[in-house]
Known about the structure:
The structure holds two protein chains of two kinds.
Chain A: H1 5-13, H2 36-50, H3 57-62, H4 70-84
Helix pairs in contact in A: 1-2
Chain B: E1 5-14, H1 20-27, E2 37-38, E3 50-51, H2 65-68, H3 73-89, H4 95-99, E4 101-106, H5 112-124, H6 134-138, H7 142-151, E5 157-158, H8 166-179, E6 185-192, H9 197-205, E7 229-237, H10 238-243, E8 250-259, H11 269-283, E9 292-294, H12 301-315, E10 323-325, H13 328-331, H14 338-352, E11 354-355, E12 371-372, E13 378-379, E14 384-391, E15 395-402
Helix pairs in contact in B: 3-7, 11-12
Amino acid sequence: MKNIEQPILKILAxxxxxxxxxxxxxxxxxxxxxxxxxxxxxxFDLEEHFDxxxxxxxxxxxxxxxxxxxxxxxxxVNTLIAExx
Amino acid sequence: xxxxxVVTGLGCISAAGHNVKAFTETLFxxxxxxxxxxxxxxxTTNRPHIAAEVKNYDPALFFTAVQLKQLDRFAxxxxxxxxxxxxxxxxxxxxxxxxxxxxxxxxxxGGQETIENAYQQLxxxxxxxxxxxxxxxxxxxxxxxxxSMKYGIKGPAFSxxxxxxxxxxxxxxxxxxxxxxxxxxxxxxxxxxxxxxGNFMAWDGLRVLSTDTCRxxxxxxxxxxxxxxxxxxxxxxxxxxQKRHARIYAEIxxxxxxxxxxxLVQPLAEGAEMAMAAALADSKLxxxxxxxxxAHGSGTLQNDRTETQAIHQVFREHxxxxxxxxxxxxxxxxxxxxxxxxSIATIIAMTKKMLPPTKNYQKTDKYCDLNNVVxxxxxxNIRHAMSNSFAFGGLNVSLLLSQYNEPT
Lengths: 85, 408
């Protein structure tokens, strides 16, 4: 598995003034200053960086994923990279 | 009887300075102001390209990285000038006042930098799509939305777009809304940031750009110089301003609007005459009471001569007494922000009792035989002044500004 955590942290850091390293990866995004508007941009950045296509909200939910916190992002990105490869 | 409308806050950023204080110093400088220089925003081709760029501008001094993701450069200038004007007016928006305040901010082009960056990615870099906020950022109305959101202003909010008269129309429309009691306070102005490679080359295609400097009304003029920046004014009804003991800079004593109905680029004197005459009629002042005109004065042959002709037609024998200058020779042609920045220049001239000059002036054009203030500021107490904006497509606005007198 590739190290996806560092690039993801780097992308997210552009959207919040919080220090992500000191927070639990299960802390909801809204509690670290990332709103739904930023999440739209973050999804775009993740797709660009990892060359993946993140499905729409309903498809993510149907597949048992979500995008509520950093842990969710790690899991989804890992899965999508694995599927691509 | 309609409300009187007064100006209680000023804010601007341009090549002539990042705030009103710096702008004032540049306007009244006796020296070469060096606001017009070779373009630094992009590499120019073999032809020399000059512009009036906002120099030494660091967005990080005004906005966080997160905020900047949603702000085109023109919206940044709008917010910077709005903040200065609102701070200057010392006004805060309570829930009630937020409903009685409008934001009308004009732009000619809108989010040009965002458009060009997106097209670069799509058409040159092989990207399949653009950043998700490309559209919200590039909308000409985005600056208005940003101001409304920042201050929680919930009254009417929209943008005006009429090329180089955009912010003039913003001021005129807001004045009407204040007069008829629709709102108590108006945040008005304009912003522009289109010194981008694609836009600049398009202007170059029109063959109107100067390759040395901007010298309006001058026989050896060489064209216009594109500028960038933002200008915002806080307008209020006189009663509202008086009630909160606000400092009043000036009164908007007349507004005039017209259209040439003639040509996309060629101006018609008749249209300019109509706008100036309409402003005079609206103000109840007579022509002989006007002492200074901050001219549209773009520095193109057609504008300068047409505007001169129109001023003669409207002011007749008084035309020779009028002092005239074009501050575009200092801050460049800031398109949609022009009328706001030039209205601010006119108000500063009234408050400082000093007329800003047409800089870079060298040689008299016999067809521009007005009493031009050239190269150096000229002390004069001005009671009533006019600011003209005559845009491509024949869209004209004349604003009359007067020293404020307490009601008797």
